[in-house]
Amino acid sequence: MIPLTLEQLADVVGGELVDDADGGRRVDDVTIDSRTARAGSLFVPLPGEHLDGHDYLTDAAARGAAGMLVEAGWPLPGTPGAIVVDDAADALLGLGAWVRDTADPAVVAVTGSNGKTTTKDLIAAAVGAGRQVVANVGSYNNELGVPLTFCRLELGSEVLVAEIGARGAGQIAGLMPLVRPDVAVVTTVAGAHLEFFGTIDAVAAAKGELVEGLAPDGLAVLNADDPRVAAMADRAPGRIATYGRADDADWRAEDVRLDGLARARFRVRDVDVRLPVPGEHNVGNALAALAVADACGVPLGDAAAALETALVSRWRMQLERTADDVTILNDAYNANPASMESALKTLAQLDVPGRRWAVLGRMAELGAGGEPAHDRIGRLAIRLGVDGLVVVGEDARAIRDAADQEGFYGQGDCYLAADVDEAVALLSPRLRPGDAVLVKASRSVGLERVVERLGTAAPDGGPPA
Fold it and tell me: Which CATH number is associated with domain 4-87?
């Protein structure tokens, strides 16, 4: 963050510095979690579903926070550094906008139903081969996470890569006054958050708000293999670059091959690319990253080399290995039908000597289409040759039932576990060295706990072949 005194900060956010506050005290970090406050932090208290950040003002101060915002009407904490504001979230948005304008980076924004976090990570790596890059951590992609990401900019930051999420129409458009992207990347449109959107076409309309937010000289980077994304070219006010496997894509992957851990190797414009993350679907995400790097002036060879060692956010196609030589494909962060299908296909492509297991849970926020979507996943698992299936939670029973109906019953291990504890108890004694296990469900299920209980060691695989 660009350092500010409390006096300057109060002016930026339109707040009032409490009389006994030291206006010369400097702030160089912003947090909305009092547990991460440190010397130099600004603590921004926000209301939550059950708690309010204002209840933790003294905790933030005890951890060394240099300043804190306090909404009018809340009692002052009795600690130095308080700035009174009308609305803490609005103040955070204003601070993010000030840092953005002061640092003045090129802004790359990424959205999509699937792959946006991994694509954001790959873009940060590829562009980082030639530019000073700031990117959001994990999936900080909403009306709070995006301004927090902008607050991380420093003088000298050249490119900001921001993931943008949405669970309803107008949410992306609402962030455009802050984001003002120079490059907009759309990965996919799929049946995610249908409980809120209603239809996939409504999802496409919302994701396209990012493209419409471009300036006339901006660049839309669009997935040519997804018809709904490709159609967003009509909504782009400026330049367009397409990527994918389609013959007419501007950035096209050729000679795609997978190693034994399902990591892709391919060629683009006569340059070899090797990916460290499994999943053939990540070829498209890598192509998007290379297109953005090119737009930022990074030589293709340098960007491709950077992808080979890119680090992606945890619980997203994360390869791990247990002490008993079981390969874990940890994709537990979230799930919808399209991402579940990609994960199962990746499991099937792993070259392992043992059996392939899938530990699957509920795909949330699908609305009326939830049960048939779970049914399709259960049938797909069998068609792809999964040897063992553990379904976690009564609300995902349709996966297990469909697998049985597809012909799994009597042919392999197929279980319904009430919770994570039962899932681990069922799975652990059945695993053998050389087996592989996919773990995937929506965030609310918390299936990363299965991976923790299985006791994974260091990340698996080494460099891409």
Answer: 3.40.1390.10
